[in-house]
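Contributing new records

If you add data, match the layout below exactly. Sequence lines come first and carry their own label; structure lines follow with theirs. Keep one chain per record. Anything else will be rejected by the validation script.
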Amino acid sequence: MHDKTLTELAASLAAGEFTSRELTEHLLGRIQRHDGELNSFITVTPEQALAAADAADAARARGEAGPLTGLPVAIKDLFCTDGVLTTAGSKMLANFVAPYDASVVERLKAAGTVSLGKANLDEFAMGSSNENSAFGAVKNPWDTSAVPGGSSGGSAAAVAAGLAPAAMGTDTGGSIRQPAAFCGITGLKPTYGRVSRWGIIAYASSLDQAGPMARTAEDCALLLNAIAGHDPRDSTCVARGVPDYREELNAPLAGLKIGLPREYFGDGLDPEVERAVREAVAVYESLGAKVREVSLPHTHYAIPAYYVIAPAEASSNLSRYDGVRFGHRCENPSDLIDLYKRSRAEGFGEEVKRRILIGTHTLSEGFFDAYYKKAQQVRRLIRQDFLDAFEEVDVLMGPASPTPAFDLGAQKDPVSMYLQDIYTIAVNLAGIPGISVPAGFVGKRPVGLQILGTHFAEQRLLNVAHQFQQATDWHLRRPQLVEESA
């Protein structure tokens, strides 16, 4: 059962091959057996999961099942979940039980899904390797000496290892697409505003976006149907109709215009990753697509602009964690200032502190115009680069990451770690959608092909990704962990 895609599981449930309870028990058993090595979950919720599975089976017996009824998922531990520990991977929220559901969780519950638990992540979604979690690093199922990527590394590892058929992640600068690439699964970052951020613990509010992670583009389309759409509780959520994202999956690609940004194929790109990406592009040419080189001239400014804007927003968002209302509180503070200082010093990890300090500095008097305002101006130029490119081509393609998954502990320098996101960060600055699909291996570590589209082009991206997966078998490969316990 754990080797099936979400779509295949839906068909099996509809055919009565097994019940949702049987499927859920099977996956909970796999989590119990294998997650001690991977650490992909922070909290597993067997009682709630089995109750939801029984409710789904009852709904199916009444003839009331929908496309997602009874299907298990994992939820990144950044989404508030009513009555369940919601930690954001931080000691600051180690004992926080959310009193309500995030909009995405609410919609998944309404669709009849079964939540298996909360997936591990870099603390407050700040990281590219899932080594920054207060609950320990996550390991890559393909090679447990490697990172799974971040910040949605727990979600990616759980799907790749067959512990959950799908998961929810968030993407602030590549945090869905990069771990999807490292773990050999499919991950979609929707257009900013396509999915509600209400109830997601904020990192950088103008960049954060929730999205699905699964084995195939078809599965991501199924999930996006459930979670997309306007939410009046989120002022940045767009009031725009939601198409059926599965309708165009099988549209032919003849005449598709693909752009290869020359800035994505320069210095720093692993030659074996480039080879895999170019071979994937050749598959599209065989399907009738036309390929040309394009330019995104402000790409090299994306990382410095991002690491001004995102920490500035993080500094503001994380100021609420002061030891007063909720979150970690230091022991025996001498006064209010001591309470603030020690609660924050004890509750936040090193990377979070680093970004708060950077953000507070850039927002301070005398530096706001020189740094933050300038970064926002650069952001506008980066967005315009993409808009100009999409005047010429339908989609852009390139690597999701300059290297395959690196070894645990290998990236000790923060700047080197930040450079891992060089191909993903600009997408968040521009607010456009992007998807990563499995496209090969370097040794036994997966490579992801990143496909980008203009605003609200998710339907086209899912079609392009699905057709590639119909023509290749990279998404069918499984880690040894899955094969040995099949």
